[in-house]
Amino acid sequence: MIRFLVRKLLLATATLVAVSALTFGLFFAVPNNPAELMCGNGKVCGPERLETIERRMGLDAPVPQQYAGFMKGIFTGRTLGEGAAARECPRPCLGFSFRNDEPVSRIVGRTLPVTLSLVAGAAVVWLLVGISLGMVSALRRGTLLDRLAVGFSLVGASMPILLFGPLLLIVLVYETGWLGYPRYVPVTENPAAWASAMILPWLALGLLNSASYARLSRAQLLETLTEDFIRTARAKGLPRARVYGRHALRAAITPIVTIAGLDVGTYLGGTVITETVFGFTGLGKASLNAAINLDMPVVMATVLLAAVFVVAANLVVDLLYAVIDPRVRLG
């Protein structure tokens, strides 16, 4: 198990280094002059302004030196610029926003909790609803409940959140008044207000995603129930709950874990549409605004953070594989 873990950690580290180098190259090495790109191709900045930006952001140094300084700053912090233009950037240093000169790490620290809150609750919803509905549908194959579950999965898979989110707002907020309009409150300030504000986004993102999980878990469970070891367990007289819950579900859950890990990692990189529909400023909304404003340090930071989440999610999935199926550890 230790060798398996070390191998996966080394692979994840190598992947992140490669992604960071590629991302840095795309944003800072490929453009002839990143400062001009961030100034709208020089249309809103004069020569003096461009020179100031280059000094303050360290863009006047060779590209390998810029990349080395960027990676060092993440772990130890760094000093950007020289002389009168020098300023300290504490770790984790991701640079400064071109638009408001704010540390990028502060922007990430302000927006990331919003996205984390949204994705964590939505993941619980889509896993609980999707897997439960898929199991019940598979065990009641051909019944009315099965047809309803299949219909739900088809509707959920085809309905965009741009439509489903406003529908929830109309029904649960404006028409019935059962819920208040969602306004994000940090969980550390008021846990009750935080949970109340997140209910609608959790339902919107979670229910739509649960449709695909219901379909996937139903298909996997139906296939698993035809396996020889399930028939053997039934022949031994094991209780139905143990046959279905301990044996069938455990064998069928591997692809579900894979998809769940990828979904969580991807959504943690930003849920732009969901945040926009409900008026939240999370990591996705911040990255979209930065891309529109050509605020390249913020864009690069959010891209790298999204890569970290995806790689970390894949690492967690690999470790869960080893727990679910011990044969994986021997690979």
Distance between the termini: 11 Å
The largest beta-sheet arranges its strands as 1-2
> What share of the residues lie within helices?
over 70%
State the domain count: 2
User: Per the principal axes of the C-alpha atoms, what is the gross shape?
Assistant: globular
CATH architecture of the largest domain: Orthogonal Bundle
Tell me the β content.
under 5%
Per DSSP, the total helix count is 14
Radius of gyration: 24 Å
How many strands? 2
Biggest sheet descriptor: 2 strands, antiparallel
CATH superfamily of the largest domain: MetI-like
- What is the CATH topology of the largest domain? MetI-like fold
Contiguous runs where pLDDT drops below 50 for at least 5 residues: none
> What string gives the helices and strands in order?
HHHHEEHHHHHHHHHH
Mean pLDDT: 83
**What is the CATH class designation of the largest domain?**
Mainly Alpha
Which structural class do you get from the secondary structure elements? mainly alpha
